[in-house]
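Many introductory courses stop at the sequence. We go one step further.
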Amino acid sequence: MQLNIKERIRELAREGAKEVVRIRRHLHRFPELSFKETETARFVCQALDTLGIPYQPGIGGNGISALIEGLEPERNAIALRADMDALPIQEENETPYVSANPGVMHACGHDVHTASLLGVAAILNALKGQFKGTVKLIFQPGEELLPGGASLMIREGVLENPRPSGVFGQHVHPPLEVGKVGFRPGKYMASADELYVTIRGRGGHGALPHECVDPVLISAHVITALQQIVSRNANPIIPSVLTFGKIESAGGWTNIIPDSVELTGTFRTLDETWRFEAHQRMQRIAEGIAESMGGSCDFRIVVGYPFLYNDELLTARAKSWAIDFLGADKVVDLPLRLSSEDFAFFSQELPSCFYRLGTGNPEKGITHPVHSSRFDIDEAALETGAGLMAWLAVCALGEERPS
């Protein structure tokens, strides 16, 4: 008896899991930083060549777009996205696939995303005579670094010829048990802007502060006052966060007042109007305080990713399709997050669904968070990642619905 397409996807995901693990380990062993993913892109192209899938390289730098055409390819199109870049972190794991590139590590799971999407490519390429429409695979560079590879690929036309009716993306999630996935419709992740603030005063001897204009003291007042942006200026129903993660003085010491102090931080929120209003308020507060204390302030804001919005209808459908594929006990609802993702650029262009792939396994000690030197995954997640995304693509193309 011939299996239906859902069972074939499950079967192919299971049969291909070993190869997807091999791909993930190779990518993990040879990570590359944002916009430097030349070898990673070459590896992806070679994998697509092996499958006989046509592609276009060099989009937005090292980005790649590939097409799998089913029956009636012009009927509809759906896009699937994976990011490829790594982070500047020295890996501390002891595994056969530990990073071979000093100071660079796939600590955010982009190796998992890329390997999973190559697994999806193999599955859907084998089934292209059993679904109608076109699947566009997007292998994206530079998610971890502004301006974000998604924005560059979109600018260079990755969402055209054909234009998809929707976009799916997935991301590893260590707090979620392997085998499970999570969804959240509507606003899901925050915008992210970078703050670079220079407070200038007049340096001198620490024992003679009356002869100086102390930029350290001014900086302390500025940091404290700016927190009212969240606690007193933001509407309580709009989640926002303001964090300064780095304070550095130019030549200060125990008995030396420096000439200047540099602050580096981030501002995140889930409302675009309030986002840019907050920018103006922060600048006015910081400049006013510095001037009132005899100094000056250069407040520079680098506008980053917008907030990520999951289309409510597409996400609701995706959740139901995931329940059908994995079982209701494997699908959870996700809370709001103030972390950010450049997939948000896709979500501002087309109906999108960005969901979480469970990768944790406390029994195996796999609990470390993303962006840590000990991050790793339970590789059983790769079968789920490839199988579910293939199923979501077929469902979204309209040829299969949950039974």
